[in-house]
Write a structure and sequence with these properties.
- The structure is a homodimer.
- The first copy, chain A, is an alpha/beta fold and about 230 residues long.
- Chain A folds into 2 domains: about 140 residues, HAD superfamily/HAD-like (Rossmann fold); about 80 residues, Orthogonal Bundle (DNA polymerase, domain 1).
- Chain A has 9 helices and 6 strands.
- Chain A has a 6-stranded parallel β-sheet, with helices on both faces.
- In chain A, helix 8 links the parallel strand 4 and strand 5.
- The radius of gyration of chain A is 19 Å and the shape is elongated.
- The termini of chain A are close together.
- The interface between A and B is large, with 35 and 36 residues.
């Protein structure tokens, strides 16, 4: 196999993302506990996010809107506007935080950039993702950037088509089995899964739905150059 | 000049958009007047949108978050959560409304699709724009779709580069002087401006900053096929 193009997921593969959602969600839990001590806040927020996914899509703005809606619903509209303002502030903080790269990312990308064409393939909010990439300092190492509203067989096929990539020349690297591994392997390309410390429940895949070959896990991005050479 | 590629803006060029913002904004004004009868609500909302633009970017979710923040600020946090819920509902309504095409769009695109490569080049929220395009039924007529977080010389240059387009082969069609005309003409391509009934103040350009040639206004999209042949 002669790998020519390596695609990288962004959130939780190159830079920290989910931990920020977790931090904000625990603040949200504390805030709402004061109004509704007995509510199962995490479950209700997760349900709200899923309900709103087809309307809002992914990203921090969607998350912020779903937190506000959950707060109103759980308190039966008793939540004070000052608390809504606090939630708005958390959303802005998440959007403005500096991009924190994962360990080993910069040196690994730099080592690979001369040997392969590197693509950033992320999903989520266009504005937020572009802003994160700009703040990451990694922009120049990527030949191209694809920000998709959803990562599935159809949207990866679109990327291959637009960029004239053959599946057998392509390897995807990411932390989400659902978004980075399963659809890519289904198209006949290869994938490496690098688990992150926390995974959004939406990104999990039942074990028996995982492809049996075409991918394998790596424990850190530093293992990638050797893994690519072994293919 | 041998035009090969025609780029179309989406919002207020192919489908109605700004009128929806106006409708929602007038509901917002009525709602807030009950709490702060003397406030200049439109001005304050416009200022909030501008202040938040570099954090949120464009689109309905950004607009919804800015409405909520304006409501909290203007009422000094006295706005009841039930009113915040109403604002959230307006945002969702805007995101779910069927895509309403402007008059003459479908037949004009159909007439042009065989003669030129058609590109949709919009800005704003990725998820919302893809959803609008899907609901518009126009998807199949476009060779490609580019959703940009901002439309300026740099991002148009990126489109030309990615798609191997020479400026002299390209014509852009849109309702915004700032986003669809000025940067395109600056790159040496041609543009047609089709004004919409209302324009967001942010999209206006002072008359003395407009290019003197390389573009002209059309009064309706139906004039486009003839205008392209005259180039």
């Amino acid at each position: 196999m002669a790998v020519r193009v390596v695609g990288f997921d962004g959130d939780d593969t190159l830079w920290h993302s989910e931990t920020r959602f977790h931090v904000t969600q625990s603040e949200f839990r504390d805030l709402l506990k004061r109004h509704v001590p007995d509510a199962d806040i995490d479950t209700r927020l997760a349900e709200m996010e899923m309900k709103n996914l087809s309307i809002y899509g992914y990203g921090v703005k969607s998350f912020t809107l779903s937190m506000i809606e959950t707060a109103i619903e759980l308190t039966e509209a008793r939540i004070p506007a000052a608390d809504v303002e606090t939630i708005l502030g958390w959303g802005k903080r998440m959007l403005m935080e500096p991009t924190a790269l994962l360990d080993g990312v910069e040196e690994t990308l730099r080592a690979l950039a001369g040997r392969y064409d590197l693509l950033l393939i992320t999903k989520g909010d266009l504005f937020d993702q572009e802003s994160k990439l700009a703040r990451s300092g990694l922009g120049e190492m990527f030949l191209g950037v694809e920000i998709l509203s959803e990562k599935n067989v159809e949207t990866y096929r679109g990327v291959f088509h637009r960029r004239g990539i053959k599946a057998e020349d392509f390897v995807m690297v990411g932390n989400s089995l659902r978004s980075d591994i399963v659809p890519v392997v289904a198209l006949g390309a290869h994938a490496f899964h690098i688990p992150y410390e926390v995974t959004w429940h939406h990104e999990n895949v039942p074990e028996d739905e995982l492809p049996v070959q075409g991918w394998r896990p790596l424990s850190a991005i530093r293992e990638l150059p050797a893994a690519l050479e072994e293919l």
